[in-house]
Amino acid sequence: MDVLLIGSRGREHAIATALKQDERVDNIFCIPGNGGLAGIATCIKMDVTDKEGIGEFLDANPNIKLTVVSPDESLAGGLVNYLSAKGHRVFGPEAAPSKMESSKAFCRRLCEKYNIPAPEYKIFDSYEKAKKYTSTHAFPLVVKTDGRTAGKGIYFCRNQREAENALYDVMIAELFGEAGKVVDIEEFLEGQNVIVMTFTDGKTVLPLPAVKAYKRVYDNDLGMSTAGMGAYIPAENYTPEIAERAYKEIFLPTVEALNSEGIPFKGALSFSLILTPDGPKAADFTVRLCDVESQVAVPLLETPLLDIFNAVIDGKLDKIQLKRANKAAVCVVLTSGGYPLEYVKNIKINQGDTDDTVRIFHAGTKLIDNELRTSGGRVMGVFSMGESKAECAENVYRNIAKIAFDGMHYRKDIASDKKNK
Prior knowledge:
Elements: E1 2-7, H1 10-20, E2 27-32, E3 42-43, H2 51-60, E4 64-69, H3 72-76, H4 79-85, E5 90-91, H5 99-102, H6 104-113, E6 121-124, H7 127-135, E7 141-145, E8 154-157, H8 160-172, E9 183-187, E10 192-200, E11 205-207, E12 212-218, E13 222-233, H9 240-260, E14 267-276, E15 279-286, H10 291-297, H11 305-314, E16 328-335, E17 350-351, E18 359-362, E19 365-368, E20 371-374, E21 378-386, H12 389-400, E22 403-404
Parallel strand pairs: 1-2, 1-4, 2-3, 4-5
Antiparallel strand pairs: 6-9, 7-8, 7-9, 10-11, 10-14, 12-13, 13-16, 14-15, 16-21, 17-22, 18-21, 19-20
Helix pairs in contact: 1-10, 7-8
């Protein structure tokens, strides 16, 4: 059988790498793919929101028996609905439950209605009312765009001036366009942040190991929020007791709440948790496998991804046992200079001979006349697994020194014990 992946990130590269090892998979296609995926998949130049075009491509390639949809714009735009209605077998949630990521207002109100532990919040569609609210509220506060911004529309505000600047950027300057017309202002929760990705068929929920992710662009968690600068497994402080509470109080109740709303979720549902003194709370939701986090979690999976995807689609996830290698893993992301704001594309990438302790997962890359060039903000992830995160980090940073392109930026403190909040 053949498989189609929708997306162009390191996540798709990690998924394709895993599927390539499955003898049941003959060919992998990817829309649109990237310069690294081109080595293991057939990349098709097509927009990920072109439902009709993707449907026609599947109709013309009947040996494709599974399509995996990851981009948030594809999910929110109803690609899964469209392809499923045409009789294609698709992994990913439909548009309605995808609002858990595409609308902060929706997910916050769902948590409130069903008593799912989450930050206190207020939703505003007025700049003046939002500014007035921050003037009467204790700091720090978190300002988030209601709509999709690939993890960039999050501001951690220490005082009134920073809050007003954030609201101006989002609501008046329209830095994120329509996504910032409505904002979510939340209390700041003290505690370690971890990401837990889960698979669910709407009944059973199977969590992957918790991942420590680094979202800020600069070392020591400074600068703007991004879609991810690095990650590692295992996440400290995510004890079995906390994992049980998160499952009983957040993961399963969220899936049950969506069922109660008449919009069952089938796919990968990921949770950004804050481990507060009062227990875990859901800071954010992602309706797919997260990008950087997938690059440390997927390579450790021993249960075939094909079995997991099919079990989710068929509603038989209770028959699956998630097995993983008992290893540590680290991934560091190399970005274009200026990311997550404006950056220059089409920069030549010089990659030396990295050793076999690492894998390179491509994201914002493209091949032009067999020359690798940048095409996005997060260019590639350098991954290693081993006996400890210290060993993995040493492998990663040693090999990063063999990669170069103008403006290349990366954090130097991934998997460091200096600061992990």
